[in-house]
Write a structure and sequence with these properties.
Layout: H1 8-11, H2 14-23, E1 26-31, E2 39-40, H3 44-49, E3 51-54, E4 57-60, E5 63-64, H4 71-82, E6 91-94, E7 97-102, H5 105-121, E8 132-133, E9 143-146, E10 149-152, E11 157-159, H6 174-181, H7 192-208, H8 218-232, E12 237-239, E13 252-259, E14 263-270, E15 275-282, H9 293-314, E16 323-327, H10 334-338, H11 348-369
Parallel strand pairs: 13-16
Antiparallel strand pairs: 1-7, 1-8, 2-5, 3-4, 6-7, 9-10, 10-11, 11-12, 13-14, 14-15
InterPro entries: DNA/RNA_pol_sf, Retrotrans_Pao, Rev_trsase/Diguanyl_cyclase
Protein name: Reverse transcriptase domain-containing protein
Pfam families: Peptidase_A17
């Protein structure tokens, strides 16, 4: 569902919603009941777009049902219209989930009451069992599922869970390795180092596996078991609230990028050391003539600048950024970025370098215009 023609409600994902929930002191998460079944299609021209021919007769849908290709589009448009009176800085949409947020409990209650009245007018309702709120009078103690993570309301922590389909010691084949490799759901990259290590171990295990039977080598199984033991002992919770009340320089962020000949990563931090977002990249193995780490540094920096621009643009309404400090050991320098970029390359390597520099310059321009 990544397409420029999609409604804004479909362009938002788990990363955007989780970042929003970490911004505000008070949040309220709601889940609509049978949202796809409650989208009415009033206009005749819209009904005609969902028409079909069956048994020598023409039919058209007057209500969008789950499974109809246009149902997510109609739902997104309906929810955007539903939320139109509210400031975009105070809500996010993720399909049939609505997240409200504010630093003031009074404002949050007003948002909730206003949303309730608009939902009733549309004959839509929320599932009270899935309602989550940080307000003392509505909060439920214990751990609750939240967008693929666990939220512990007692101490306001977000916990990254692991769904181990197989124990590492039992991953003796490529089939079981596939299930084990997808055990860690960490959309914001809070534990990027662990997931990158797992990806490298899994790639090595696949490369060393028996081509005929698909069985893994004992040394690779041992390495996966050691990773699992260390990961289970790791504390996997982070504070939900990103910034403290008296934190200085809240609109300044820091981006760190680094790369080796095997992998690269970019991590976005606050100036007080809280991690916002991180992405890692496994470099393709290119035989004996593998590229060296310095040649990957520029690739990692250009890629990181791209997703940082997208991220900062998305959170601009509730978390505006005034300055971005980029720390990298890439061979590129500020003076080189200020110089004129040649438009002609005399080798494939020079062409790649020019393209990366242009991407970085474009990213800097986007940040300055935001």
């Amino acid at each position: 569902l990544i397409d420029a023609s999609l409604p804004p409600g479909l362009l938002q994902g788990v990363v955007q919603s989780l970042s929003f929930l970490r911004r505000y002191k008070h949040i309220w998460c709601l889940d609509l009941v049978q949202a796809f079944l409650q989208v009415e299609i009033d206009l005749r021209e819209d009904q005609g777009c969902l028409g079909f021919w069956w048994n020598q007769q023409a039919f058209c849908f007057t209500r969008c049902c789950f499974g109809v290709p246009d149902s997510p589009f109609a739902l997104a448009d309906s929810l955007l219209d539903l939320m139109s009176p509210f400031p975009t800085a105070n809500y996010r949409l993720l399909m049939d989930d609505i997240q409200l947020g504010s630093d003031s409990p009074v404002v949050l209650m007003q948002l909730r009451e206003g949303l309730n009245s608009r939902l009733q007018c549309r004959l839509m309702s929320t599932n009270p069992k899935k309602d989550l709120s940080t307000l003392p009078e509505t909060s439920t103690p214990g751990s609750h599922p939240l967008l693929g993570l666990l939220w512990r309301s007692d101490d306001d922590l977000l916990i990254v869970g692991s769904r181990l389909r197989h124990k590492a010691s039992e991953c003796t084949s490529l089939r079981k390795l596939k299930g084990f490799a997808n055990c860690l759901f960490d959309p914001l990259g809070w534990f990027l180092e662990w997931s990158m290590r797992l990806r490298l171990l899994c790639r090595a295990a696949r490369a060393n596996a028996n081509s005929e039977t698909g069985h893994l080598q004992p040394a690779d199984v041992k390495a996966l078991t050691a990773w699992e033991e260390h990961f289970r002992a790791q504390e996997r919770s982070v504070p939900r609230l990103l910034r403290s009340e008296n934190e200085t320089h809240p609109s300044s962020l820091c981006l760190l990028t680094d790369s080796s000949d095997l992998a690269g990563a970019g991590v976005l931090y606050t100036l007080h050391g809280r991690r916002l977002l991180g992405h890692g990249y496994i470099h393709a193995v290119q035989g004996l003539n593998r590229r060296t780490a310095p040649k990957f540094e520029l690739d990692t920096l250009a890629t990181a600048m791209d997703w940082v621009c997208d991220y900062l643009s998305e959170v601009q309404d509730h978390s505006p950024t005034s300055s971005l400090l980029v720390l990298t050991d890439s061979t590129i320098s500020i003076s080189r970025l200020r110089q004129y970029t040649p438009v002609v390359a005399y080798s494939s390597e020079e062409l790649v370098t020019i393209r990366r520099i242009i991407r970085i310059k474009n990213a800097i321009h986007r940040l300055q215009q935001a």
